[in-house]
Amino acid sequence: MRVLIATLTLTLLADQASKWAVIDRMALAQRLYIEVFPPYLNFTMAWNTGINFGLFGGGSEATRWILVALALVICAWVLVWAWRERTNTMMQLAAGLLVGGALGNVIDRLRYGAVADFINMSCCGINNPFAFNIADVGIFAGAGLLILFAGRHKTP
């Protein structure tokens, strides 16, 4: 469980530190757009009241609290599962990424009322209209690794 806790902590700290640096220190919430390495990397302020890509983003207080509760239930379930299964190192890493990212977005919903997304990447003439954050990367990578490595330590 040490790998899980360390990964969770590092993911959560990286997410919150990046948001502090970009939103608070660089004032992205007021500036709305900062060119970093155009056109490949820019900071674009986006407040996500829903889930990925703004789905279910009605912006109501009820939705906010339902998404916070759902994220916390999923985090608790993953942590209990990892502890009970005595998961291997790769599964602990995956669970830590997923839970750390989810908790980062929960903190945003509690602090701002929405998830703060700001990383915008485009390439090769394709203009990507979506923004994401470090927590989203952790959630996506963690879920992907859980799918890839689930059940690999069991004998057939």
Give a written overview of the molecule.
- By secondary structure, the chain is of the alpha+beta class.
- It has helices at 2-25, 28-31, 61-85, 89-111, 134-149; strands at residues 33-37, 41-48, 115-121.
- The protein has one domain (2-125).
- The protein has a 3-stranded antiparallel sheet with strand order 1-2-3.
- Strand 1 and strand 2 form a beta hairpin.
- The relative contact order is 0.20.
- The chain is globular.
- The model has no long low-confidence stretch (mean pLDDT 89).
The count of DSSP E runs of length 2 or more, i.e. the number of strands, is: 3
β-strand amount: 5-15%
SS field, number of helical segments = 5
Largest sheet: 3 strands, antiparallel
> What's the SSE pattern?
HHEEHHEH
Give the mean pLDDT.
Answer: 89
Strands of the widest sheet, in order across it, are 1-2-3
Question: What is the share of helical residues?
Answer: 55-70%
Topology:
Blueprint: H1 2-25, H2 28-31, E1 33-37, E2 41-48, H3 61-85, H4 89-111, E3 115-121, H5 134-149
Helix pairs in contact: 1-4, 3-4, 4-5
Q: Features of this protein?
A:
globular; three-stranded antiparallel beta sheet; 156 residues; alpha+beta; 3 strands
Task: Provide a short characterization of the protein structure.
This protein has 156 residues and is of the alpha+beta class. The chain contains five helices and three strands; from the N terminus they run ααββααβα. Helix 4 runs antiparallel to helix 5.
